[in-house]
Design a protein that fits this description.
single chain; mainly alpha; hpI Integrase, Chain A; three-stranded antiparallel β-sheet; disordered C terminus; binds iron/sulfur cluster
Length: 338
């Protein structure tokens, strides 16, 4: 169970092998319902960093913490989640080299590991097992975030990188691949009701701008690069709203946020029009999502795969190029007294 938990943490948190091996025994902290992993960045000497983790990752740690007291361990190793298994070890925590060796032995023992695609005879291609080593999980973690559209500055924080250039490597999409992705998705654009509103690749690129939950075709906002919405980003009810499938995760996340806002508004006994406006937005976005998903589900698998691939590329390109625009009201800075 020790190595199983190590594997889950490598996979889910993207920390370096030594950072996992040397996690403190009490490495969970829950604030306002969000659980964080407390970890130490040994490379940069930054201690007690906090990383938000999912409930399933936290539960894997709790399960191991409950199992740990039943092991016969040197008493001096109690400070670590993964203790050294003998008092002869140079460090009091698990040796990071043991993680590499155990992972290698496990990967080599797996009967079959398949890569994407098939050979000329339709047989699955074998996955290159040498690509699986502890540090590779850190790269995969970063790449998953970049592909999902996590903004580059947020990912830099998550990775605790010294420079943003290091984080930007995960967002690289060539112009040629981006163009191809735009061409794929331009024929799957919908309007605010989720009805098809396809456009040519050129007009999709030139006459729309990416806003948080889809493309916007309102001319003055396009001219302003998406920063000048005349109706405060009420996209769900706007005739200029043009989402495509690459925005599905952002729309679904926004629906969850709107539901949370509605609950808060209800708890605050807010006026009915506030609750109604939130409910109407939720319903409108839900309709868009349902229609897009229904259309995707009806497509042949290869076409759906092509759209998913193009969506991943565009999310990554968008996340690298700009911050999510928020519907905030701007105010003039206070004047200093003369
Ligand atoms: S509400 Fe959305 S789609 Fe409409 S103009 Fe504003 S940003 Fe564009």
């Amino acid at each position: 169970m020790l190595y199983q938990t190590v594997y889950i943490l490598l996979r889910d948190t993207g920390r370096r092998p030594l950072e996992i091996a040397a996690l403190p025994h009490h490495c969970l902290e829950t604030t306002h319902g969000q659980t964080s992993l407390i970890w130490n960045n040994h490379k940069r000497h930054r201690h007690r960093q906090r990383l938000p983790i999912t409930e399933s990752t936290a539960q894997a740690i709790r399960t191991w913490q409950a199992r740990r007291p039943h092991l016969q361990l040197p008493a001096t190793n109690d400070a670590y989640l993964f203790p050294a298994l003998s008092s002869y070890s140079s460090a009091s925590h698990l040796n990071a080299n043991y993680i590499s060796e155990t992972l290698r032995a496990w990967v080599d023992s797996l009967p079959a590991l398949h890569a994407e695609g098939v050979d000329a005879h339709g047989r699955p291609l074998p996955f290159d097992r040498t690509l699986i080593y502890p540090y590779a999980f850190r790269h995969s973690y970063a790449q998953r975030h970049a592909d999902a559209g996590t903004p580059v500055d947020v990912l830099r924080e998550l990775m605790d990188h010294r420079s943003i250039a290091m984080t930007q490597r995960y967002y690289q999409v060539s112009l040629k691949r981006k163009r191809a992705a735009v061409a794929t998705l331009s024929t799957h654009v919908v309007d605010r009701l989720g009805q098809p509103a396809p456009s040519t690749t050129t007009s999709y690129e030139l006459r729309s701008v990416a806003v948080p939950y889809g493309g916007c075709t309102e001319p003055s906002n396009v001219k302003a690069g998406g920063a000048s919405c005349p109706i405060r980003f009420q996209c769900a009810g706007c005739g200029f709203y043009r989402p495509d499938p690459s925005y599905l995760p952002a729309i679904e996340q926004h629906i969850n946020e709107l539901r949370a806002d509605r609950e808060t508004a209800q708890a605050m006994n807010a006026a009915t029009f506030v609750i109604t406006a939130l409910s109407d937005q939720i319903t409108a976005f839900e309709q868009t999502v349902t229609r897009m998903k229904t259309r995707l589900a009806a497509m042949p698998a290869h076409e759906r795969q092509e759209i998913e691939h193009a969506s991943t590329l565009l999310r990554r390109a968008r996340a690298a190029s700009h911050h999510t625009l928020l519907p905030l009201t701007t105010t003039d800075p206070p004047q200093s007294p003369s």
